[in-house]
Amino acid sequence: MENKRLKLPIGIQTFEDLRTKGYVYVDKTKYFIDLIDHGKIYFLARDYPNTEVLNSMSKMFSQNIVSENAYNNFQNDLLISLIDKDVELFIDVLNYFLASIPYDDFSGASRQNYTLRSIRYPFQEWLYRSCIFSFLQGCGVMAFPEMHNNLGRADLIVAYRGITWMIEIKVAYQDKGDDPAKKAEEALRKIENNNYANPYSNTVCVGLAIDDTARQITNRKMKI
After folding, report:
1. How many domains does the chain have?
2. Domain range for residue 121?
3. What is the C-alpha to C-alpha distance for residues 58 and 189, in angstroms, rounded to an integer?
4. Coil, helix or strand for 146?
5. pTM, whole model, 2 decimals?
6. Residue 13: inside a domain
7. Quick check: helix, strand or coil at residue 120?
């Protein structure tokens, strides 16, 4: 029996062509039938169709915040910092990026509470975390937000060239009298107490404290 090699459906936009012209696809029709026959109400979450689209959108986001030339320099410095485990350079890159975000974006969004899966994120923490995640992803780095284990969820896990960075972010609110140094210690302690780094080898654990007034990373605690 002759084995016919199927083609990859790169650029194919119609379901008819996908099914009839020898392309690889996964037929999930039966699941739709089950939904129609037995289902009631379903929430269909919209997500990026693939990693390439996510990376492209993240890169566009980053380049929209900083100039293209600056983006190229930041990308190089970021990758060097990850390979060399240079937390100071890593923070410098993130701070320049945070400083490039327009004030109106912060003032309009930073005071909105955000709730996801019944978890309430206070004020600016979700904004900083989302911006940093998108920037890292846009620079071609594998970044994973809100990674859960049996004890909690890590803010960001960054993987590059066999090195895993475990990052926890805390915001120091000056109007509440928060101490950024203590916030950085609290962030690192959370990584350690919740064993976030245990499943990984060659890890860098970093607790970051962001000053809410300066909108900059002002303190850090690190453990290799």
Report:
1. 1
2. 51-223
3. 30
4. strand
5. 0.66
6. no
7. strand
